[in-house]
Amino acid sequence: MTSLFKNILRASAIVPVMAICAPAFAADQWQVKADDSDIEFAGTQLGADFEGEFNKFTAEITFSPDDLAGSKVSVLIDIASVDTENADRDSQIISADWFDVAQWPTAKFETKSFREIAPGQYEATADLTIRDVTKEVVLPFTLEIEGNEAEAEGTVTIKRTDFGVGQGQWSDTSQVGDDVTIRIDIDATRS
Amino acid sequence: MALRSTQTGFGPVTKGFHWLMAILFATMFAIGWYMDLLPLGLEKLAWISRHKSIGVTILFLAVLRIIWRLAEQTPAGLGEKAWERQAAKLAHFALYAVMLAMPLSGWLMSSAANFSVSVFGLFTLPDLVGPDKVLYEQLRFTHWILSWVIVGLVGLHVAAAFKHHFINRDATLRRMLPGTGKGN
């Protein structure tokens, strides 16, 4: 009874919305396969490289190669899920001087537009929000779609200090490098 | 060959290695303690960075020193009793061993902590083991124990040199000093 009522409500809300904005091609919805997807990063510390990843994130993906204007990707990253295979470093990363998880538990990546560079190669212009700073980043990525499966891979290098990651003495980049390369490898299924 | 040691005296290369290593070991001991006491911050990281870089330098010099030592003759020990000369050989062997073991334990420790070792920012050493917290704690303990083993060995080494100099009044200490000629 209640579920029927909900469905009617839902339908009555969705149908007019679709009627208003349905383009010639509606971009597809994609579901991220969490086990096969990674958001990794690489930075430098004391002159040596180190790598880590964020184990938890959610993504809403609407994407079609033939409807880039109607495509949109929004990713929420759970900063506390960071793993650099060193517990001391991980607890530093989430502390107030760095990501300050207590105040800003998530980072957000939200696309504004897509551009095709070559077949299977795209560029996403997106707003990246870390802590309370939002900056535009351009993420080039490759995309392979086979049937209902897709894999996207891309890297973008940002400067941590642009986002206030590393407060006070840590804004000095001599021991912890400014450049951080983010690498995404997202597997998704069409839903 | 003027650079090599003879049967009675140490050559300049061996003396150079000896004193350079002595200075580096003393410096490393001081940096090690200082950086450990600092609160987490840029200063601490900078000193850890220097400690690692100098440590790798010591490892490299130790290998060169051992090759050099094996390639040339070593002046005979001046101890009067056979057991004294044996004890000296054993202590010297132990000193060579810690010259390798100390930096290696640090390198291993950094690897286990997943903090790769960069040498003066010029290049990064490969990790010897994968990230492993338990192993890291064991290696950290080993590194700490070794620091005191070195203090003990160097203490013995210095005490023996003074004993030869002031009690036996032989050339043991003098012949390792820079500038002195062939042992007399």
Automatic annotation (TrEMBL), chain A:
Q: Which Pfam families match?
A: YceI
Is Transcription regulation there in the keyword field? no
Q: Which residues form a coiled coil?
A: none
The record's keywords, sorted A to Z, are: Signal
- Residue span, Lipid/polyisoprenoid-binding YceI-like domain: 29-189
Where would one find the signal peptide in this protein? 1-26
Q: Does the keyword section mention Signal? A: yes
User: What protein name applies here?
Assistant: Polyisoprenoid-binding protein
Automatic annotation (TrEMBL), chain B:
Which positions make up the signal peptide? none
Q: Which GO terms describe its molecular function?
A: electron transfer activity; heme binding; metal ion binding
Task: Name the family.
Answer: Belongs to the cytochrome b561 family.
* Domain named Cytochrome b561 bacterial/Ni-hydrogenase: residues: 10-179
Q: Which organism is it from?
A: Thalassospira xianhensis MCCC 1A02616
Q: What is its main location?
A: membrane
**Pfam families on file:** Ni_hydr_CYTB
What name appears for this protein in its UniProt entry?
A: Cytochrome B561
List the InterPro entries hit by this protein, alphabetically. Cyt_b561_bac/Ni-Hgenase, Cytochrome_b561_oxidase, Di-haem_cyt_TM
Query: GO cellular-component terms in the record?
Result: plasma membrane
Segments spanning the bilayer are 16-34, 54-71, 92-125, 145-166
Q: What does the record say about its membrane topology?
A: Multi-pass membrane protein
- For the keyword Cell membrane, the answer is yes
Which prosthetic group or cofactor does it need?
heme b
